[in-house]
Amino acid sequence: MTQDKTASFKRRDFLQISAGAAALGLTASLLPALARAAGGLVALVHTQAAGDNGPVDSMIAKLKQLSEEKGFEYRAVYAQDPATYETVFRTLGDAGASIIVSTFNEVAEPFKALASSYPDTKWIQLFGDPFEPAIPNVVTVSYDYYLGCYLSGMFAAKVSKSGKIGYIGGISIPPLNADFNALKAGALSVNPNATVTAAFAGSFQDPAKGQEIATQMYNDGIDYIQTDSAATDGGIIAAANEKEGRMVSGISPAQYALGPKSVIALVALDFGQSLYNEVSKALGSEWKGGTHEPTGLGTGVIDFVASPVFAEQGPADLTGKTKDVWAEIETAKKGILDGSIKVPFNTAL
After folding, report:
1. CA geometry: angle 300, 100, 62, nearest 5 deg
2. How far apart are CA 122 and CA 139, in angstroms?
């Protein structure tokens, strides 16, 4: 027993030392470039890897586009290890970055710890909860993705042949739990006999696990899966591609090419457009920190859309069904926007 504890302690020490070394290495590699850009730098610190055909790729592309339009220097930094987050943010702050954008709830604590120490830097957290108390130079942005999932559930219940619908999320956290519950509510509003099954891959960056879960769902008779898992979505789409008639509702137009005959729709969340919007505001003189920006349908960031690629290449019976029911989906979308349809935000599984 003593030997096991000692081994565990050594492994823990090794991981801590390795994380610290990684942070120092990252800092060293950033400093020369940041020194050149001090005062005008806009930085994106993304905590999921690029190459996801989704949120991260779209944010990097939009930041590059905006930098070309506005003439500022930018950096996109991948902070893979939570142990390096504060070091990365501190390095950017010390270099005089004017705007720091980062992603997802895991950066909330580093923001809270550091933002007040760099009052001249504007901090933007995409996919985050409001800070209590608010910090004067921080804006947090949340997404009402669950509203799009409700529409996806309605659509799924209309086009599914089996009446069996699946949902695969990255990790079970309150916003994703709400997405599943909204998907289920939408489906049951159309077909009370529909079944809606949830699973979580445990990661937003594990396509192999996504493919494994999706394959089992499809083998169990589910024919429509709503994804909610970033890079893990790639495996879900791969499983759908194995047999005609398997449908996926994804998150990003980049996924159309991955499944031209399977990605039938998107609950689109355009992280790139959101970043573009928020950084554009932060570049202006009227930017106001200490605020929270909820983002939903009708903002140009979140929508439920049919795939134009699937319309051309998908099975004829499913493309026909999509055309037949889409007017109902648009009517429901208007109902959500005008308040006549109430979609509950339910985070309990």
Report:
1. 40
2. 8
Residue pair 270/57 in contact by the 8 Å Cβ criterion: no
pLDDT in tens, 282-330: 999 999 999 999 999 999 999 999 999 999 999 999 999 999 999 999 9
Do the Cβ atoms of 226 and 154 come closer than 8 Å?
A: no
Whole-number Cα distances in Å, 175 to 34, 74, 179, 293: 35, 30, 6, 15
Question: Residue 103 and residue 178: Cα distance in Å, rounded?
Answer: 19
- Token pair, residue 293, equals 């920006």
- Could you tell me the pTM of the whole model? 0.84
Identify any residues that bridge with 86 across adjacent strands, giving them in sequence order: none
Answer whether 291's CB lies under 8 Å from 278's CB.
Answer: no
The residue assigned the tokens 């290890």 is 81
Question: Using CA of residue 159, residue 161, residue 165, residue 166, what is the dihedral sign?
Answer: negative
The β-bridge relationship of strands 302-306 and 122-126 is: unpaired
Convert the pLDDT of each residue in 145-200 to its tens digit.
999 999 999 999 999 999 999 999 999 999 999 999 999 999 999 999 999 999 99
CA pair distance 24, 34, nearest whole angstrom: 15
